Amino acid sequence: MAVAVMEALMIFIVSCLCVFLILHLIKFFNKVWWNPIRIQSAMRAQGMKGPPYRFLHGNTKEIYNMRSEIMSSPMELSHQMLARIQPHVYSWIKLYGMNFLSWYGPQAQLVITEPELIKEVLSNKDGAYPKSVIQNYAEKLLGDGLVLSQGKKWLKMRKLAIHAFHAESLKGTIPAMIVSVETMLDRWRQEGVKEIEVFQEFKVLTSEIISRAAFRSSYLEGKNIFDMLTRMALIVGRNNYKVGISGIKKFFKTRDDIESEKLDRGIRDCMLKVIKRREEVMMGTEPDGFGSDFLGLLLKAYHENDKTKKISIDDLIDECKTFYVAGHETTTSSLTWTLLFLAIHTDWQNRAREEVLQIFGQKNPCPDSIGRLKTMTMIVNESLRLYPPVFNLTREVKREVKLGKLIVPAKMTICLSVLALHNNPQIWGEDAHLFKPERFAGGVAEATKNNATAFLPFGLGPRSCVGLNFALSEIKIALSMILQHYRFTLSPSYVHSPEHILTISPRTHSSSSNGEPMWWTPIRIQSSMKSQGIKGPSYRFLHGNTKEIVSMISKSRSCPKELLHDTFPVIQPHIYSWIKLYGMNFLQWHGPQAQLIITEPGLIKEILNNKDRAYPKAKPPSFLKKLLGDGLAMSEGAKWLKMRKLANHTFHGESLKNMIPAMTASSEIMLERWRHYESKEIDVFLEFKVLTSEIISKTAFGSSYLEGQHIFDMLTRMAHIISGNSYRIRIPGIGFFLKTSDEIEAENLEATIRNSFMKMMKKREQEAMLGDIDGYGNDFFGFLLEAYNDSDKTKKISVDDLIDECKTFFVGGQETTSSSLTWTVLLLAIHTDWQDKARNEVLELFGQQNPSQDSIAKLKIMTMVINESLRLYSPIVAVTRRVEREIKMGKITVPANMEVIISPLAVHQNPEIWGEDVHLFKPERFAEGLAKATNNNIAAFFPFGLGTRNCVGMSFSITETKVALSMILQRYRFTLSPTYAHCPVEVLTMCPQHGVQVILQPYEPKLGRKRHVSGKLDRYGHDFFGQLLKACHDEDKSKKISVDHLIR
């Protein structure tokens, strides 16, 4: 009997256990399978689609994989954050529509991106959408503070927070903000750093401000709290899409579980010490008891006798954690991204600085004037639109409710994607992903077309961020003070890799440890450009395409050349070949530097006109920097404008007219030397190098070629070093430790050139002091010295500026004109019919007299000849610009920091523009002027550049060429020597590698002055200038005058 009872009891217990297990199993399967399938079916019936539910994990594995893949490498410098931060939302919107259903484990999540539905959810008028219940790591980070609490507790805490951050209280926190920013700026000055990591700097700054303003403490006192909260935030971030089985953590804890619990205890202990310290210090010393800051208000509520107002110690700690985190994370990220934008878009940086200086001058910002910062508000709003600190808001459906036309079941989570909203082209336009602060010029209401939910970086409705005004004031004060003291640009070492932790923030790991600039960045850019139809040769690690280019150029130089004028495949064989393979515009690589080759005139015009200031001059390679310094050819901004004005003043019409006597005198000297080569061979390239050096020396520096010969020789040597290193890639920074022979020589040349110019400068200043010249002289060098000694700081230039401009004009005044003159003489030596036409025109206008300014402009045939020569043999074969910020170029979106290479050769020898006879010398193309020759396409012919940065010495060079050619044609016929070897090469300009040899034959005019028996031509004329020239050539030393005296 007893055994039977025991058996029955055992059966009953086992049956109960089985029923219990079956019930729990049914409950479990209901939660993780039947309920999700039922909800998915119900939502689909209402037209709400989404990725299918996967058992247990939902869609978290898919989301995790998408995020892992996209986060595994940096992105191009684009601001399309939705695809980066929420790739699943970005992809599924395209697949399923603006609103869709996804699954966080077995929890249904309705993702909403429609503004009207978002407004309905956040306004929460019927209380159907409370905050979602947050568990695990986020709960440990924020506790049950203002961000996560509900009902009466939230209302109580909200009132406390509003009191802490209302207008008058906010005004009282501004001194703390200013002191904190001053501390940061002092540190920047003391450290004297050239490159600074602003994200880390702003983490310290915002921590300091929240410590001072809300806790009457300092960053150093609270540093351990901030460090622990940051570590906790990292744990939250990396566990966002990990789903665990409910209850299992009671038995099996992960490493993150253990660390988060330890951090939670550590943060609590630190907070209790802060509270205790305030209680001990402040009790009885303040009228309010504990102070008027946020911590003081919390302590007052903690000690309140009225139970309706009293808060617990846990409430106090949770609020402290909330404000430590929120006051630190959101403002840090917002400040960082705003500074990034201003570093890229320096035009907006300048506009913001002008506004700050106009309102504050050099004084610290004041509360009453912060509201007047309209430009800065536009910039901050646009930054918050593209990089919202809070990009996702979640709510819970309290009961079954109708949302729009949709019936939503209770307990569903609603996810509101702020990023999707801020990047919606239907609201913000097709350029939604571009930085355009002008969107907010008429305010937020106008920018959003009065759609309150189109822009919500700080939330919306009663649960919007209580610290909104505090954060904006903090950002504006910090930016204002930075702008007052610094200009800043984006460092080349920056790697764009935004990530989601709590907010959108830049990754802080070092880019040098994973080869981002050398591999991932080029691969990413190449992929992005290919997706837009821009192809090109594949990137090769470290070298890019430089090895291929060098090989092509070497092969081109080694082959004998026919006497053709098809210079494009000779000088730029890589561009010539790759245009055929990849199209008119393509991507190539100079090491890891992306270079977009542009040969379409329409795009060239857009780039060189540079109306929106997106295409500044590219940063020069180190050797070119040594040659030209930061002179007119390389400088930017206000400095370039100042130097351009000086140069314009030097080469304007009247000044140019006064230079013609020096040009004729220099040409006379050369032609006198040529008398010894009559009926012989002469290398005109070498002759013209001396001639142009003489002319620039006399006209711009009041000197002579012989005086400056050593400078020209050194500059020529430097040019050859540049040419030899054009396509050599050096590892950044290695030059500090291992210098090549070229680097050592270039440094020595640079120092010697500088010393030579210093001597010239000292000599001219001494002449000015002795009164030998008027002021510092009326030439370019004199204008530079006058600016150097100017007491007006806005006009004054430094000694480095002066030397850089001298180098620029020594090089520019010699290289371009000597090569242009050489190729023009080559073409006339071959095409003697055009030589005769040009000579007849010269004789008709000048006879045997020297050219005059008024008649030079009448040389129509010579102008045609010169233009055709410049078309076939462009002195400048490549124009380089840098993309300062991401911009739309035609139909292409081009990332910041890419270089744009424009090939005048490709355009000048394009058969679609110039016809199938494009390689032939046909000056008649220009018979009716440039406009007709180019079909009014201004960017089809630009041998001296285009736009505001075209060559300032263009008229000088053309005049110089015409004067020299006219005087040569008056005296000589010339033909090409049989020894001439045709081999154009690029050495700064396109020049003949082996010179240009011609045979000179004296020209015997049929009419005009007769040759004396002595063989000398009476060609000086009987006017005053003619008498001076005659005295200059007189053999009687007592009557002879020098060239310098002639010019004076």
From TrEMBL:
Q: How does it sit in the membrane?
A: Single-pass membrane protein
Per the record, a Pfam family? p450
Q: Which UniProt keywords apply?
A: Heme, Iron, Membrane, Metal-binding, Monooxygenase, Oxidoreductase, Transmembrane, Transmembrane helix
| Signal peptide feature range | none
Give the binding site residues for heme. 465
Q: What is its main location?
A: membrane
Q: Which cofactor does it need?
A: heme
Gene Ontology CC entries for this record:
membrane
> Can you tell me where the transmembrane regions are?
9-29
Entries under PROSITE patterns matching the protein: CYTOCHROME_P450, EF_HAND_1
Q: Which superkingdom heads the taxonomic lineage of this protein's source? A: Eukaryota
User: What are this entry's molecular-function GO terms?
Assistant: heme binding; iron ion binding; monooxygenase activity; oxidoreductase activity, acting on paired donors, with incorporation or reduction of molecular oxygen
Matching entries from InterPro entries are given as:
Cyt_P450, Cyt_P450_CS, Cyt_P450_E_grp-I, Cyt_P450_sf, Cytochrome_P450_Monooxygen, EF_Hand_1_Ca_BS
Q: Which residues form a coiled coil?
A: none
Subcellular localization: Membrane
Family affiliation: Belongs to the cytochrome P450 family.
Q: In its UniProt entry, what is this protein called?
A: Cytochrome P450
Q: Which organism is it from?
A: Salix viminalis (Common osier)
